[in-house]
Amino acid sequence: MVTLDIDLTIEQYHQALDEFVKGNPEPVLKIFSQREDVSLANPLGPTALGRKQVVETAERAASYLQDGQPMRFETIVKVVTPDIAFTVHTERTMAKLVGRQDFAPIVLRVTTIFRLEDGAWKIVHRHADPIVTQQPVDSILQK
After folding, report:
1. CA separation for the pair 38, 113 (Å, rounded)
2. In degrees to the nearest 10, what's the CA dihedral of 73, 129, 16, 23?
3. Which of 1, 24, 35, 38 is deepest in the core (most CB within 10 A)?
């Protein structure tokens, strides 16, 4: 759906993420930019650059999830300009990791950058990591 309303796009994105934690990356990928400067930094690996890598990375990440419950989003900040918007929020859900029978909590700190492209808001970058509490300084050291 083409929309100039960033709030509507963010709502569609949140609904798409509900599908993602059920193992279906397609609704999220529809909101990502088709352009080659798109990127994705998920908690499972290095940053994906370009549409092909973003699709592969999102599909791989979604394949590890199943039976996810609807997400809760805690917005920390939202900034909107005429051409660029970004959100910083915490995502909370429960899902089963493939091969496990029990639900596990998933909590991520997320920054999402949107760009207005051809009359629609598209994601050009998403960064998500599990750091939602204060960490010791040595946690930044490479192991």
Report:
1. 10
2. -130
3. 38
Residues whose CB is less than 8 angstroms from the CB of residue 130 and which lie 6 or more positions away in sequence, other chains included? 43, 107, 108, 109
Confidence class for position 54, pLDDT limits 50, 70, 90: very high
CA distance linking residue 109 with residue 18, whole number of Å: 16
55-98, pLDDT tens digit by residue?
999 999 999 999 999 999 999 999 999 999 999 999 999 999 99
* 6-131 CATH, one of 3.30.1330.10, 2.40.50.100, 3.10.450.50, 3.40.50.800: 3.10.450.50
Place of tokens 């989003």: 73
In the 8-state DSSP scheme, what is residue 9? Answer: H
Considering Cα of 66, then 69, then 75, then 81, what sign does the dihedral take? positive
